[in-house]
Write a structure and sequence with these properties.
alpha/beta, Rossmann fold, 2 domains, nine-stranded mixed sheet, 33 helices, 21 strands, binds N-(methoxycarbonyl)-beta-D-glucopyranosylamine, Pyridoxal_P_attach_site
Length: 755
């Protein structure tokens, strides 16, 4: 017995039934912290450090209770006291330590690494305000600092601190730690977040997220990805990155020495996985520490580093493959700039004349991915198609010289959070049908035996309806938004980016709006839900948000259409919102321009929760289609080869598509008088011009096929039992997308941790 009432009395001198949600949350937080603080860490000679700019960990209470085996007991005690975990969790603040798929992947990985009992910690920064809190005003995105640290958190302050020697000053770090218990493991790993005591929120200008970018001591860990559209922003990002990796490298070396390393054998003790290019400075930093602090000569330091560091690439978008002017790096940390120059000279000597693999290009710009590939021992992509594109296109010049370094590790998601914690009813449904072995091995294929079992299908249908009900309540309670709980729930949630093509779905909405106006009433009302943030400096992405919000208001105010079509943009989309949206979704929108979405992981979460996917042949969608079979998914659009060719030959002309009879009126509607009533002409005209003249991510190329497939999907939804049968088939085949499988692959091929 946990006896929560005793704890409540001791802490608040009241029984549970008289506590507020925030107080109950505090009781449970302390209970879990007590347990995990007492648990031993995973052991092993070799230890992994997973360095990442983002860890989008979400709220931790339910997940931790689940992993500790306390979930059912706590749920029962709360119920007996007239409340529930869902209600109590409303009092938990979601940590603002990440933004997108890259950060959420890191969080799923931490859960799986701990669950497999492997010795591996996450290392990152303790951002005080994350990216930003998004809200909408006048149908535009607005910003607020996303406060989370003034609520009770899971952070433990450690006494570990390092000196980080920048060119102009040295800063002392403070390390905070979050326990990461594995599922049924009895051991923990940690997420280790470095910070500065001198950081000062007061420097943020009232009512904005602006601050003095040059005041490094006070601003260093305020925000994730501070605006880098000017030089001071560039410098700040370099300050952040170097601060993160210098601490990580010092920590890894110190712990290796404690476990018995003599530094020459560091690679037997340490493996560092760098999550995208943001932590790449760890390579020159390791070399600096080995040579200056540990007395190793340069050649050997390079060799040691090369055996320690492995790199994951998460995108082929040029904008995200980081490049920094050498002079900027020099200004922040001259020693690191000098080491990079030396590393570049070695590359030059080894591959003379091969400009494509140079670290420093002709304009003295440093290519971070080049450092990571030359001076790491492994590079992997995050889905089969993505890895092929890296090998054959984007990174082909590197692949030619280092074929043995390349491998694929298709992403995965943790079923603990994305099924057991966020969809308990579905989880119970599965337990009742096939037992609980899947909790360990993620194998759900025995569910296929129920494909034609009407009772099971009706049960599954009822669970989806309940989750829709819960979503409707949540949207109403938190935002006053009313949705039809019996409508079809059609969801696109992800960062806002042209390549993800939220604008294509917006054009479809314009199509549907006119169809309904013309009297073609859908058999079931439709609710289309968006969620996601646009980077503050990304104008077109903000214009796309504006278009969707304006359409939403237009439709809302049109009494002919409003009963049948509703468009919702959920503000400040995050993990907590995803946990309502994904279990409730009927349709998952995975409609990126083929070749551009490295993997996607939302796609896997929707599949696992029984949504059917509308997809382009991109990223992990391709593998999802392989696992569920093409009859249980809705593919459309040009192939990645076709798109890669179009780019290579500069052969895409948006005007050609714009002029098509079915497309032109949809695009023209963006600048119509009707929409102008709800919109800002400048934004709508700019977007219109962009789509008709540039359309770099080809929103128009697949639009006609998209319209056809959407119509087909909605009409097939009318056969609820057959729809639910295919939903079951999707769930049953999701096992491959467990992050445990992904982590087993990383460990077998790259990390070689023993447990
Ligand atoms: C990719 O866009 C992928 C995640 C995790 C993202 C997405 O397709 O699923 O990484 N990349 O691998 C990213 O955020 C900065 O790059």
């Amino acid at each position: 017995m946990l006896n929560l009432n005793e704890r409540a009395q001791a802490q608040f001198e009241k029984p549970i039934s008289e506590l507020s949600n925030a107080e109950i949350y505090k009781v449970l937080l302390d209970l879990v912290q007590e347990k995990t603080n007492a648990m031993p860490a995973n052991q092993g000679k070799r230890k992994l450090y997973y360095i990442s700019a983002e860890f989008l960990i979400g709220k931790l209470l339910s997940n931790n209770l689940l992993n500790l085996g306390l979930y059912d007991e706590v749920a029962a005690e709360l119920k007996a006291n007239g409340t529930s975990l869902a209600e109590v969790e409303e009092a938990e603040a979601e940590p603002s330590l990440g933004n997108g798929g890259l950060g959420r992947l890191a969080a799923c990985f931490l859960d799986s690494i701990a669950t497999l009992g492997l010795n591996g910690d996450g290392v990152g920064l303790n951002y005080h305000f994350g990216l930003f809190r998004q809200y909408f005003e006048n149908n535009e995105q607005s910003y607020e600092p996303d406060e989370w640290l003034d609520h009770p958190t899971w952070l433990n302050k450690s006494d570990i601190s390092y000196q980080v020697p920048f060119g102009k000053f040295t800063l002392n770090s403070t390390l905070y730690e979050i326990n990461v218990p594995g599922y049924n493991q009895g051991t923990i790993n940690k997420l280790r977040l470095f910070d500065l005591d001198s950081v000062n929120p007061e420097i943020i200008e009232e009512g904005s997220i602006d601050f003095d970018k040059t005041d490094i001591k006070e601003n260093l860990t305020l925000f994730l990805y501070p605006d880098d559209s000017d030089r001071n922003g560039n410098l700040l990002r370099i300050y952040q990155q170097y601060f993160m990796v210098s601490n990580a490298a010092q920590l890894a070396i110190q712990e290796a020495i404690e476990r018995g390393s003599n530094i020459h054998d560091l690679a037997d003790y340490v493996v560092i996985q760098i999550n995208d290019t943001h932590p790449t400075f760890v390579i020159p930093e390791l070399i600096r520490l080995l040579t200056t602090v540990h007395g190793i000569d340069f050649d050997e330091a390079v060799e040691i580093t090369q055996n320690v560091v492995a790199f994951t690439n998460h995108t082929i978008l040029a904008e995200a493959l980081e490049k920094w002017p050498l002079s900027d790096i020099h200004e922040v940390v001259p020693e690191i700039a000098e080491i990079i120059v030396a590393l570049d000279e070695r590359v030059d000597a080894a591959f003379p004349g091969n400009a494509a693999v140079a670290i420093i290009d002709k304009r003295d710009t440093v290519h971070m991915a080049s450092i990571a590939i030359h001076y790491g021992f492994s590079i992997n992509g995050v889905a089969a198609l993505h890895t092929e594109i890296l090998k054959n296109n984007e990174l082909n010049h590197f692949y030619e010289i280092y074929p043995e370094k390349f491998s694929n590790k298709t992403n995965g998601i943790t079923f603990r959070r994305w099924l057991m914690a966020s969809n308990p009813e579905l989880s119970q449904f599965i337990d009742d049908r096939i037992g609980t072995r899947w909790h360990e091995d993620a194998d759900l294929t025995d569910l296929l035996a129920f494909e034609n079992d009407e009772e099971a299908l009706l049960d599954l249908l009822r669970i989806k309806e309940n989750n829709k009900e819960a979503l409707a309540d949540h949207l109403h309670r938190t935002r006053g938004i009313v949705i039809d709980r019996h409508s079809i729930i059609d969801v696109q949630i992800k960062r806002i980016h042209e390549y993800k093509r939220q604008q294509m779905l917006a054009l479809y909405i314009i199509y549907k709006y006119h169809q309904i106006k013309a009297g073609h009433i859908p058999a079931t009302p439709i609710t289309i839900i968006f969620g996601g943030k646009a980077a503050p400096a990304y104008t077109i992405a903000k214009d796309i948000i504006h278009l969707i919000l304006a359409l939403s208001e237009l439709i809302e105010n049109d009494l002919d259409v409003a009963p049948y079509l509703k468009v919702v943009f959920v503000d400040n989309y995050n993990v907590s919102e995803a946990e309502y949206l994904i279990p409730a979704a009927n349709i998952s929108e995975q409609i990126s321009l083929a070749s551009k979405e490295a993997s996607g992981t939302g796609n896997m979460k929707f599949m696992l929760n029984g949504a059917l996917t509308i997809m382009t042949w991109d990223g992990a969608n391709v593998e999802i289609a392989e696992h569920v079979g093409e009859e249980n998914i809705y593919p459309f659009g040009k192939s990645s080869e076709e798109i890669v060719d179009l780019y290579a030959n500069n052969a895409y002309d948006p005007q050609y598509y714009y002029k098509q009879e079915r497309i032109k009126p949809l695009v023209d509607f963006i600048i119509s008088d009707e929409l102008a009533a709800y919109g800002i002409p400048e934004r709508l005209h700019r977007l219109y011009k962009d789509i008709t003249n540039k359309d770099y991510f080809m929103a128009l190329i697949d639009l006609e096929e998209f319209i056809d497939v959407k119509e087909k999907v909605y009409s097939e939804y009318e056969d609820r039992l057959d729809w639910t049968r295919r939903s079951l088939i999707n769930i049953a085949n999701a096992g491959f997308f467990s992050a445990d499988r992904t982590i087993e692959e990383y460990n077998k091929d790259i990390w070689h941790l023993e447990n």
